[in-house]
Amino acid sequence: MSKSLIRNRQTKILATLGPASNTPEMIEKLFLAGVDNFRLNFSHGKHEDHAERVKMIRAVEAKYNRPIGIVADMQGPKLRVGIFKEGSIALKAGMVIRLDLDKAEGDETRVNLPHPEIIATLEPGAFILCDDGKVRMQIREKGADYLMAEVISGTKLSNNKGVNVPGVILPIAALTEKDRRDLTAALDMDIDWIAQSFVQRPEDVAEAKKLIAGRAFLMAKIEKPSAIEQFAGILDLVDGIMLARGDLGVEIPAEDVPIVQKKILRMVRNAGKPVIVATQMLESMIESPSPTRAEASDVATAVYDGADAVMLSAETAAGNYPLEAVSIMDRICQRVEADSVYRALMEASHPDAQEDASDAITVAACHVANTVKAACITNYTSSGSTTLRTARQRPAQPILCLSHSLATSRRLMLSYGVNAVYTQDVTSFAEAVQMAVKKAEETGLAEKGQRLVMTAGVPFGTPGSTNILRVAWVE
User: Fold this and answer.
1) Disulfide-capable partner of 385 in 166, 409, 441, 464 (CB 3.0 to 4.6 Å)?
2) Whose CA is closest to 391, among 352, 363, 433?
3) Which residues are catalytic?
4) Residues 240-254: pLDDT tens digits?
5) Are 87 and 75 in contact (CB under 8 A)?
6) Could you read off the pLDDT of 377-386 as tens digits, one per residue?
7) Residue 354: which residues within 8 A CB-CB, separation 6 or more?
C-alpha cells in the first residue's frame, strides 16, 4: 500500500456501482477519490454484470496493493401494487379503493395488491403506505381476499409503486428465491459482505447466516420498525449493521429517525461490529455538483455519531457527479474528525472493557497509544477479532491491521480507522513486531523516530487470543 493511499480520516466510504460507474477507469477514479468499499446492488443487473464489476475492483486492488471490501446487497421481498389501465390513477382524500389479489389492470375503484400476506395481516384501522409514503390509506373493511381502504393523503398512484405497512410484522421470508440465487452467485464471486434486506426478526438473519456458512460476513439492513424492536437479537447474530433510513423513514415518524440512528450506532459500536449509515446522504448530488447544507449536515451527524462508514447510493450508481459526491463526502468526514468536539464525543463514549484479557489489553493499548503519542495502533490478526476490538474504542490513531488472510483484510476495510495490509504469516512475536514496524513505515502511518503500539495473540494463529501489548520504535 503506497503512502498516498492512506486516508486522512477514520470513517470509511462505501459507494454503490451502477450505470454511472461501471467502467474500470471510473472505479479506479472513485477509489483514488476516497472510496474504501464498493456496494453491488443485486436489485439490478445480471450476475455476469456483477461478476465483471468484481473483476474490475480486484484489478484496482491488485494495482494499488490495498484491500477493498465488496458488499453484495440483496433485494429482499419487494412489496408493490400492480399496474393500471391508464398507467396511473388520480387520488383524493376520502376516496375508498378496493385492494385485491385480482391481477386485472386497476382503476380509480380498485387496485391489484399481489400480496396475500398483507391482506391476511392488516386489520381495519391499520395504515398502508404507497410510493415512499406519498400515498397514505387507512383500512376500513376486510374480506377474505380484499381490503377496502380510504385515501387519507396523496394525489396520484402509478404502476408498480412500492408498498409499506408500518407497525406490523408480515409473515414473509426475508430471503426470496431470487435472493437465494443471488446469494450463491455473490459467494462464488468471493465478495466480502452480504447485506440482507427486509430483516424483521432474528430468525431472518439466522437463515442467511446458515446459507453463507462463513464464506462472507453478514450485515442486516435495518429498515423495518420490527427490526428496531428486536434489534438486540438481530445484532447478536450478524457481523455488521446497515441503517437503511429510506424505508425506515417511511414507516416511522421522520422525527424519530435521528434518535433511532444515535441509539443503533451506540449499540452496534458497543458490540464491536461495524455500522453503516445509508440512504439519501447526498441525494441532490445525483443532479447537482454540490450538496445542500442539510445533506452536508446529515453526513457530518453520522460521523459525529461514530459511524464506521457512510454510504453513497444513486449518487455514484446513476448520478451525474459520482466523483464529486465521493470528494465532498471525504472532505466532510475529514473536517468533522479534525473538530475537537468530535474527538471529545468519541472519548466520552468509550465502551467499557469486557471481562476478558483480550479486551482489557485492547483498551490498555488505546490508553498507551495516547500516553506515548504513538503514530498508530498495530494488530496482527487472523480472524479480525483483535482489530474489531480496537476499532470499537474509536482511537485517535489509525489502526494498522496485519493479516495473513486476504478475506479478513478485505472484510475489515469497512471498520473505523482500519488500514488493512495482507501479509505473509509470521511464526513469532519478534517477527510480528519487525513486520509491523516495516509496514507502518511503508504505508506512511509511522515515520522514523515514531512509536507504534502493537497487540497480538500468542501462540500465533489462535483467533481471539490477544494477550500481548508492545511499544515499538520505527528505526
Assistant:
1) 464
2) 363
3) 39, 80, 221, 279
4) 999 999 889 899 999
5) no
6) 999 888 899 8
7) none
